[in-house]
Amino acid sequence: MTTSDAALTRPRSRLAPLFRGLSLVLALLWLVLLLGVPSAPDGWQVYGLASVPVELAVLVAALALAPPLRQSRALAVTLGGLGLLVAIIKLADLATQISFGRPVSLYVDRLLLVNGMHLATGVLGALGLMGITLGVLVAAWCVWWATARSVRRLQQALSASAGRRGVAGGLAALILAIFAIGQAMPDAYGAARPVNDTASFMVMDQIHRLIPALAMEGTFRAEEAVDPLVGGVSRTPLAGLGGADVTVVFLESYGRSALEDPRFDALPKAALAEMGPKLAAAGVYTASGWLASPTRGGQSWLAHATLASGMQIDDQMRYDLLVTGKRMTLSRLFAKAGYHTGLIAPAVTGGEPEAKRFYGFDQTLFADGLGYAGPPFGWVTMPDQYTLAAYDRWQRQQPKPLFSEVVLVSSHAPWTPVPTMVDDWGRIGDGSLYRTLPATGGTPEQVWSDPDMIRSQYGQSMAYSLRAVLDYAARVMGDHTLMIVLGDHQPAPIVTGPGTPRDVPVHVFSRDADLVARFREWGFVDGLNPPETGAVAPMASFRDAFARSFSP
Questions:
Q1: What count of other Cβ atoms lies within 10 Å of the Cβ of residue 232?
Q2: Is residue 136 pLDDT above 50, yes or no?
Q3: In a 3-state reduction of DSSP, which class is residue 398?
Q4: According to the model, what pLDDT value does residue 1 have?
Q5: Is 50 exceeded by the pLDDT of residue 277?
Q6: What is the pLDDT of residue 48?
Q7: 366 CB contacts (<8 Å, ≥6 apart)?
Q8: Residues 30, 147: contact at Cβ < 8 Å?
Q9: CB 388, CB 406: distance < 8 Å
Q10: Which three-class secondary structure state does DSSP give residue 487?
Q11: Is the peptide bond before 417 cis (omega within 30 degrees of 0)?
């Protein structure tokens, strides 16, 4: 027996052609879904299967016509990376639309990733964040590998025979022709889209968003320089306040839907109805109205910056530019009027250098400076009622008059658990009593598994926050104080649904009727219920309107 006789040819499996065909089908299916499925939350259907991505047709045509491309492993690796980029854009866009009701801009929204990691750490802990990070890295590698492997399978299939290349090239040409007709005549296929360019459109859209974002600074600085409060305020600014302390309180996720959406408005409206008579009995005058927030679903700092600066700060790029500039803020205006100023922000667990550098607050109290000794409430560091109690202790020791901004967070997602209201504010102390008080709501995982439960918990947490701040106004607020309570933004579209307005309620409280009366000139009405109809001013108008109303 010769050596060549010993080297027997390995028999080919009869199932090999079936496996090759199946792998080709899976490769095509993966590419169709990756490129064709849209990112819009209301666009998920059997979309990718009913519409062929034009990018896939271009790839097939290129492989059919160019022999070197059929042999290039570098091409498969590169296209794997592009596939991963498309997946990242689509997932980021989906998350942004669900959270904020708008498309993503990767450059502008880049810091949201950092904020999201902080939120995940607060909810899931460091180990949970590590698990999520590892899962994301594994998923990214899988997307890259699946895309590169699918391209490689197409290369192999088209290298097998000239007949296959001819058929594939002909189909690719037909798809490209159908796409060209649809581009030239948008109504050619009615509502159907036999060929889509979803992936290319999303990549180009990010490029188109990047160019103006990079060029935004010059335009922004010119807008920033036009400031009515620079040289336009009297020598005695805010003298109309008569030296009253002023407190601005932001309620997290307190939007118009909290009072008007029948799916969850019963509890917040009940809180207002319950507290109205108590405020009146305590001699507190009230008025309410609306402002239009620059954001929806999150990014509360954009609303804070808009209110303080008198500029519409509706994305991260404008915020980054604002806090590196010299715009007159509300706190600086109050300081000019002789006020001591302070910021109380229990959600801040690290540093926030712009609080003093840009906003100009004399003092800041963050989570570790409020003396809280109770348990955390999920992501929320401490209950709103404790924050208000700690704020009251602090403000009694400060120079007068005092301007304060207090940011409450019990109504922040995931809206669970909800603290118990403490009847006697004197018992709150360092907050350790919360270790023995019950809290309502399940775990975030339980709540977020059911949209109806999400809305129910949102309503409960919103009612708690309202009761806390309204009870404070009735029983704790100083006699010579003007308190302004407003929402920062509407809750996320997952709660309200898409297309809701960005309006947020605003309530003003004081035992001085003249201070509250100034807001009626803005269209506010007496009581805790904002007007049902009427124009809604942008939040950016607040700073200038306040300065005009209270400066002679």
A1: 12
A2: yes
A3: coil
A4: 45
A5: yes
A6: 45
A7: 345, 346, 348, 349, 350, 352
A8: yes
A9: yes
A10: strand
A11: yes
Q: Where are the alpha helices (DSSP H) in 66-185?
A: 67-71, 73-100, 110-159, 162-184
Return phi, psi of residue 182, to 5°: -65, -35
Tokens of 230: 């620079």
Rounded CA-CA distance 100/429 in Å is 37
Predicted local confidence at residue 311, as pLDDT? 94
**Given the structure tokens 């169709």, which residue do they identify?**
32
Q: CB–CB of 489/276 below 8 Å?
A: no
CA dist., res. 463 & res. 457, Å (int):
10
Distances (CA, A) of 240 to 263, 342, 405, 515: 42, 21, 20, 8
Alpha helices in 160-265 (DSSP H): 162-184, 198-214, 216-225, 257-260
Q: Which positions ≥6 away from 306 have C-beta within 8 Å?
A: 293, 294, 312, 313, 314, 538, 539, 540
Report how far residue 481's alpha carbon sits from residue 294's, in angstroms, rounded to the nearest whole number: 28
Q: Which amino acid is at 466?
A: L
Least confident of 56-60, 131-135, 452-456, 539-543: 131-135
**Token pair in block for residue 245:** 């302390």
The two three-digit tokens of residue 56, written as one number: 């896939």
Query: CA quadruple 225, 231, 236, 239: dihedral positive or negative?
Result: negative
Which residues are registered as beta bridge partners of 485? Answer: 249, 507
71-80, 204-213, 507-516: lowest mean pLDDT where?
Answer: 204-213
